[in-house]
Design a protein that fits this description.
With 263 residues, the chain is an alpha/beta fold. 28% of the residues lie in helices and 22% in strands. It has 2 domains: 145 residues, P-loop containing nucleotide triphosphate hydrolases (Rossmann fold, 3-Layer(aba) Sandwich); 71 residues, no CATH class. The strands form 2 sheets. A 6-stranded mixed sheet has the order 6-7-8-3-9-10, sandwiched between helices. The N terminus is likely disordered.
């Protein structure tokens, strides 16, 4: 029997679940930030004057020193935080105009790998990974195969019934990654997703992210790991310094259109 990492890349409709057809297939930008600023309470802005676009099907690494604002930027992307000023558009929709009732629809299109995992402690690894599929309304017959295959892909086939308290930090991280990608999201946001695993497993997990990206998902990963960045050809760097974005070429603000010309 082949091991979980010997079966080639995951395939749409298998360990990525029976995903619906993607919305906004012709959408050039999955996320657009225009003059965005963020402050917590009455303090100084932690993010200032952010202007950038994440294109559909793009792969990005978010870098910067500790305290530069990476996690705050990710919170804006996965709709855990609203900006203090400026405009954020996701999937072509203006988020400042979105009602509270509308936000779950957008959140279901986003997969999130949290730095602190955020697994549901009373659920098994299997049920944590299955959660996005069940929320979407998938039947148990549609859930079982994809979830078991995904757990095998992250090396946890024998830990499906384990609860988070019995899993190591690295195992919890892999469950969190499996949960984030099982629904084949339009946008994957990952905060240091390889921080608790060894280098070999980190490379294998990156293979999972790149496979998902080739299926059309836009991926943005916050990391300090230069090795992962250099091993991912074609990825773009998004660098924050003191809450502002470093974009000397202007390609993040005005990315090329599919035909090759700038916006």
């Amino acid at each position: 029997m082949r091991g979980p990492w010997q079966g080639g890349e995951p395939k749409a409709g298998s360990c990525f679940g029976h995903a619906n057809e993607r919305e906004d297939v012709g959408l050039a930008s999955v996320a657009e930030f225009d003059s965005v600023g963020l402050r917590y309470g009455t303090g100084a802005e932690v993010l200032s004057d952010l202007d950038f676009r994440l294109t559909q099907g793009g792969f990005y690494f978010l870098t910067g020193a500790s305290g530069a604002g990476k996690t705050s930027l990710l919170k804006l992307l996965y709709l855990a935080q609203r900006p203090t000023r400026g405009r954020v558009r996701l999937f072509g929709e203006e988020m400042s105009e979105a009602t509270r009732d509308a936000l779950p629809h957008f959140r279901r299109r986003i997969g999130v790998v949290f730095q602190d995992f955020r697994l549901i402690r009373h659920l098994s690894a299997f049920d944590n990974v299955a959660l996005p599929l069940r929320i979407r309304g998938a039947s148990e017959a549609e859930v079982d195969g994809p979830v078991r295959e995904m757990l095998a892909w992250v090396g946890l086939a024998d830990r499906a019934s384990a609860r988070p308290a019995t899993l190591s930090g690295g195992e919890q991280q892999r469950v969190a990654i499996a949960r984030a990608v099982i629904n084949r999201p339009d946008l994957l946001v990952a905060d240091e997703p390889t921080g608790n695993v060894d280098a070999e497993l980190a490379n294998r997990l990156m293979h999972l992210f790149t496979a998902l990206n080739r299926l059309g998902t836009t991926v943005i990963i916050a990391t300090h790991d230069i090795g992962l960045i250099s091993a991912t050809p074609g990825a773009q760097l998004v660098r924050l310094e003191n809450g502002t974005m470093v974009d000397p070429t202007g390609l993040l603000r005005n990315p090329p259109r599919p035909g090759g010309s700038a916006q």
